[in-house]
Amino acid sequence: MRVPNAFALLCAIPAVHGWGELGHRTVAYLAEKYLSSAASDLVDNLLANNRGWDISDGALWADAVKHRRGYNHTGKWHYIDAADDPPRYCNVNYRRDCKPGPGCIVSAISNFTARVNDASLAQKQQKEALMFLLHFIGDIHQPLHTELLDRGGNDIHVNFSNRVENLHAVWDTHIAHKMRGLKAKEGDDAVLKEAAAVWAEELYAANEATVAVAECRDVSTAEKCALEWAEEGNAWICDNVLKPGVEWLKDRRNDLAGEYFDDAVPVVDELVAKAGLRLGAWLNALAAGRECAGFVVQEGERIEI
Ligand code: ADE
Ligand code: ZN
Ligand code: ZN
């Protein structure tokens, strides 16, 4: 019998926000392919710990901790609830949709971008900031993480492959699993890591998103960049995710694993590719800024999170 490690146990928490494990690991592995040597060192040094995590394990940490004592408030940072009117009208309005107290994914990306390179913070805090970024730059590319309606589709129950699923989970996990030939409930870390590595390699080879995302990589304007990414994801809500209308989606006679899935495939491929490329560029910019700030690299320090 396979003995689960500590991380596998943490990941067994059922509610996954954002892309599921496959999506997050793929974004992280793809980003890794674009890293400069300075960024690669930054990730290796900050993530270094006694569990031997790779970058994709670091990208899952934010989901694992949000139910832990002291981290409950971080749940709101995984999304921005755009109060628009899909499928008729989609838009994100920062002032309307990101409440200053709890914050949202856009403000979280902005805050944690600043914190990774904040020399006044303990290394543990910088490490947490990095892991939040690895996760949130993935999440912001899941369209339903930029939509208020029915709690980002969590309350829309649909038929996917003759099972009742919620639309949010369909987009977090089920479409990606079907695309990559995985079983609906595939949860084995080793299987998902391998599937993510293969998907990342394919996206890297296809280089699908390169031209589209040469733009936002200025870490000093993180809020502006994150808002642009959120707006892009939110536009897919009207153009694809909720396009057939909530009533059609809820109708159990319509199996979303059919034509709806076929239409979603290129969108998911594009969004995961963009997330990986953008995360890679972001980490490269952070590493460059960190060198300028005169950070001393503390090799191999083991910080328990
Ligand atoms: N909870 C409330 N809104 C949500 C969203 N857009 N995505 C994920 N979880 C949510
Ligand atoms: Zn998340
Ligand atoms: Zn989600």
From TrEMBL:
Keywords, comma-separated and alphabetical: Disulfide bond, Endonuclease, Glycoprotein, Hydrolase, Metal-binding, Nuclease, Signal
InterPro entries from the UniProt entry: PLipase_C/P1_nuclease_dom_sf, S1/P1nuclease
GO MF terms, alphabetically ordered: endonuclease activity; hydrolase activity, acting on ester bonds; metal ion binding; nucleic acid binding
Superkingdom of the organism of origin: Eukaryota
Signal peptide (from-to): 1-18
Statement: the UniProt record of this protein carries the keyword Protease: no
GO biological process, one term: DNA catabolic process
Stored Pfam families: S1-P1_nuclease (PF02265)
Family statement: Belongs to the nuclease type I family.
Protein name: Phospholipase C/P1 nuclease
Organism for this UniProt entry: Trematosphaeria pertusa
Origin organism lineage: Eukaryota, Fungi, Dikarya, Ascomycota, Pezizomycotina
